[in-house]
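Appendix C reproduces, verbatim, an entry submitted by the partner laboratory led by Prof. M.T., so that reviewers can inspect both the input and the predicted structure.
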Amino acid sequence: MKITFGSKSGRRIDPSTTESRDARLSRSLSGTNLERAGDYNLRTVLQAIRLGGDTTRVAIAHQTGLTAPTIANITGRLIEMDLVRNAGRIQGGRGQPALRLQINPDGAFGIGLNIDRDHLTLVTLDLAGQVRSRITREVAYALPDDVVAFVVEAIDPLIAEGGIDRARVLGVGVAIPDDLGRIALPNRPATYDRWSQVDLTDMLSVLPWPIHCDNDAAAAALGEAEYGTAFDNPSFFYLLISAGLGGGPVIDRSYHRGANGRSGEIGLMPDLTGPPGATIQDTVSLSALLARIEAAGFARPGIDELAGPAPAFAAVIDAWIADAVRSLFAPLVAINCLLDPDAILIGGRLPMALIERLAAGLSEALEAVPQPSRAAIMPAVMARDAPAIGAAILPFLDHVLPSDSILIQSGRR
């Protein structure tokens, strides 16, 4: 594994380029002793150390199936690369105390940018998966020039706040909804279709790092797979409720994109409970909820005000949750029957109190109908900033980690 920090040679902006990451997907953290698999083995061992916390070479060998000499060689290289550090020896027991290994959080960094119809968010992420800094701006239908101005203004404070070594930034991930400039949502300006002609590489050429782009729901699901609930729920469907509605299927710890890279598009499904031509996201989205509140004669609230104590528009929220349950009922029955996931996770910009109410309402509705299986419906671990965090993970996936969604579960394959 050769890492070239700060090089733009690895820029990727088209979702089809995710095939290179998908080709590395694996259902278990298993290495191989084949001569030409050195890069994959290096990534696999780094992943084992990252997810294992304090670990030892013996534990890594047991987990990956690699030989002890191979593990010794790889961990030595990772230490030389400053991606892994010695953490002393395990005390107690007989014989030579085992050397403890830890990930070096400052060994590499990723920057994540989430572009959506109602906000812009930048985060920095270290190699241990900790968010080091975050800057968000509430802005409706930001145009490309607005995004560039936000990035230029925010990047230096973001780097400083996170204590980020610019020389060890692997790249910038961008999470952006598909068809951003084409799908109509409430209050969308005519000029917003400009996004259909945007080349993200050119737009973000103000940054010195490679650009890696993915769909916002896919990025959120990848973030959840790497750092969220996938330890306990290796198969899940992710519902991303933001200005629109997106989804992402993760099966056996692997994100599945579909034949055309458009899997999980639950928001564009016909709404069988709505008027002719309506889609699910016409009801289940923040844009739809805020439009209802304004139509009822109230001033447009901030996101946090939606979950405030006894808001004046509480009846509007109650009606929206009831309608959202009705709209999502048939799609979630289909997900249960066709995918049989461990869980259905709800994340995005909806306040946690409303996510919990929606999850409870959906659970109650689904319990009332016979199904061969019924997945638990629950809030995602990484809810509000999941697309930005998932975007920051993309450079790690392309440069140092073995796959999009590969997790360790002791004793399971």
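The chain is about 35% helix and 15% strand. Additional entries are available on request from the coordinating office.
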